[in-house]
Specification:
It comes from Paenibacillus motobuensis. The chain starts with a helix and ends in a 15-residue tail after the last strand. It has about 140 residues and is α+β, with helices and mostly antiparallel strands. Strand 6 and strand 7 form a beta hairpin. It has a domain of about 90 residues. The chain has 2 helices and 8 strands, in the order H-E-E-E-E-H-E-E-E-E. The longest helix has 24 residues.
Length: about 140
């Protein structure tokens, strides 16, 4: 009887410990500490912890990649920590071309459109002849 109680206690303790580990690993906010180049434009930073869920390279009008990233909020726009890194990587915001949830950045005659959604974002690179903000990406209209 005593051995069953001890064994049960160890199973219970192990289960509780496993729940703490799983909960701790599932952070709901990005850390904003490590960045890599976007799959469609290597000189544009994306958080390393973002997961690419869709890509459309070599489209005739644009290349884009859609990433999932918990903790993003469409209403809040580009997080300040992310804006800082984008600027450090040499990109300049073009406020006059930005619209809704889409922020336009430029560097060395390249244009990137960053659209923030709830828990995801899209990096879109228009082809040189098509530099206007691509319609249909703004979910906030």
């Amino acid at each position: 009887m005593w051995q069953k109680r001890v064994r049960y206690s160890f199973y219970l303790l192990g289960t509780i410990l496993m729940l703490f580990v799983i909960t701790g690993c599932g952070s709901s906010k990005p850390s904003w500490t490590t960045f890599v180049g976007a799959s469609v434009e290597k000189s544009f930073p994306v958080p390393k912890e973002a997961n690419r869920v869709e890509t459309a390279p070599n489209n005739s009008k644009m290349d884009y990649a859609h990433y999932s990233l918990s903790g993003l909020n469409e209403d809040s726009g580009v997080p300040e920590a992310y804006q800082k890194i984008i600027k450090e990587w040499g990109w300049t915001e073009k406020a006059e071309e930005s619209k809704g949830t889409t922020t336009v950045y430029e560097k060395d005659k390249l244009t990137v459109q960053l659209t923030i959604y709830n828990n995801s974002f899209t990096v879109l690179v228009p082809k040189r002849e098509s530099r206007a903000v691509v319609q249909g990406l703004d979910s906030g209209s």
